[in-house]
Amino acid sequence: MREVLIADVGVVTAAGNSLDATWNTIRSGKTAIHEIDRFPIKTYRSRMGGAIPGIKPSGAGSMTGLVLKRLLDQIERIPRDSMIVTATTKAGIDNLEKMKRGLPFEAYDILPYSIGEKVAAKLGATGCTWNVSAACASSTVAVAEGAAMVAYGKAESVLVCCIDVLTEFIFSGFSALQILSPVPCMPFDRGRTGLSPGEGAAFLLLMNPDCARRGDYSAEYIVVGSGISNDAFHITVPDINGRGLVRAVEKAIKAARIGKDEIGGISAHGTGTIHNDLMELNAFRTAFGSACPPLYSIKGCVGHTFGASGGIELAVATRVIAEQTIPPTIGCRNPEPGAEEIVSLSSRPMQGKYMLVTNSGFGGINAAVILKRRILQ
Predict the structure, then answer these.
(1) In whole angstroms, how far apart are CA 187 and each of 152, 153, 290, 299?
(2) For a 10 Å CB count at each end of the chain, is N or C smaller?
(3) Which residues contact 368 (CB under 8 A, 6 or more apart)?
């Protein structure tokens, strides 16, 4: 197996158009979740969401094109033969809404594979392109699969791009499920009332060491392990005991060939819903016992970015490792019983060199990826 390096990362979120801006907002403890003015919200359970400033419906194209431009403008170069793996749950769903309303729309934007084709065209990539749609674990699964392609020699370089945008279809659906928080979400807080929808995009450029050397990439981080599982429990509700997530975490740790005590921090899914957060706490308690590493969620800052969540959170995790700092879980002022010692509203030092990033989604999907910093010669 080949070592899988992360040669470049970038994000676009409600907190900023770069990883620097997003990380600085998270570190500051401020939320980027505000009242939405993109579509009518009066009839819904909440008015709050993590919308990217300056992104508005316009013309026949999907908003994914506007967000994708901000993301791809951050990429200086990729190997020409890079494989493109995209991750999205809904692609240009805003154009399906336009179609239903009789407005001009571009049908091509609705299709998930359109994201990969646009990325390849913009960057001049000639490798094959495919999309992962695995609910809110989509981009975590995409990174795990992209890393496997590099590790097993099926590709020298893989660019993972993930994106989802916030539309009324999304908002109304989660309102109907009664899981929208009327205030910016409060992950792992005992008073939490639901999630705050968000939007965003991220890219991670994965490659083997030979490819990095030829391209003169510094590649400071390594994907050392991953695991994927399914609860097979319920279409929307997770197995409250977290058994599926435990399996994903244990697979990732086994693949990384490390001990559980070497994990220095956990980037949890942390949506702010009653069921998800309780499931995660139960899973991490089972997986790590009384020695659970500190964990955090960034969704109190940027909102729940659905299929883009994992990619954004993996990118942020590289900053956590670089600065050896566990960021605050914004919104968590009174931690859920059992989370008092592991979740905090304040930043804390990170002990250990490995970061575990997990995501879970509808249909019972769970995914876990472990990163560490590379020792450069």
Answers:
(1) 37, 39, 21, 7
(2) C
(3) 140, 226, 227, 228, 245, 248, 249, 251, 252, 356, 357, 358
User: For the whole prediction, is pTM greater than 0.90?
Assistant: yes
Per-residue pLDDT reduced to its tens digit, 76-123: 999 999 999 999 999 999 999 999 999 999 999 999 999 999 999 999
Cβ distance 116 to 343 under 8 Å? no
- Cα separation values, 373 from 11, 265, 303, Å: 19, 13, 27
- Name beta bridge partners: 214: none
What tokens does 132 get? Answer: 């992962």
Beta-strand runs (E) in 75-127? 83-87
Burial of 218 (0-12, 13-18, 19+ CB in 10 A): exposed
| CA atoms in the 13 A half-sphere facing the CB of 266 | 29
Cα of 93 vs its chain's centroid, Å: 19
- At residue 209, the 3 state secondary structure works out as helix
pLDDT in tens, 200-249: 999 999 999 999 999 999 999 999 999 999 998 888 888 999 999 999 99
The burial of 209, by beta-carbon neighbours within 10 Å (0-12 exposed, 13-18 middle, 19 or more buried), is given as middle
Locate 277 and state its tokens: 């957060």
Residue whose structure tokens are 């009789």: 102
Q: What span, in angstroms and rounded, lies between the C-alpha atoms of 200 and 309?
A: 8
State residue 237's pLDDT score.
86
| Cα–Cα distance measured from residue 146 to residue 369, given in angstroms and rounded to the nearest whole number | 12
Overall size of the chain counted in residues: 377
Q: Is beta strand 325-326 parallel, antiparallel or unpaired with respect to 348-349? A: antiparallel
Q: What is the pLDDT of residues 308-321, one digit of tens each?
A: 999 999 999 999 99
Residue with tokens 């309102």: 175
Identity of the residue numbered 289? G
pLDDT band at 376 (very low <50, low <70, confident <90, very high): low
Contact, 198 vs 227, CB < 8 A? no
DSSP 8-state secondary structure symbol assigned to residue 362: G
In sequence order, which residues have a C-beta less than 8 Å from that of residue 6 and are 6 or more positions away? 204, 205, 206, 219, 220, 221, 222, 223, 318, 371
> DSSP per residue over 20-45, as a string?
HHHHHHHHHT----EE--SS--TTSS
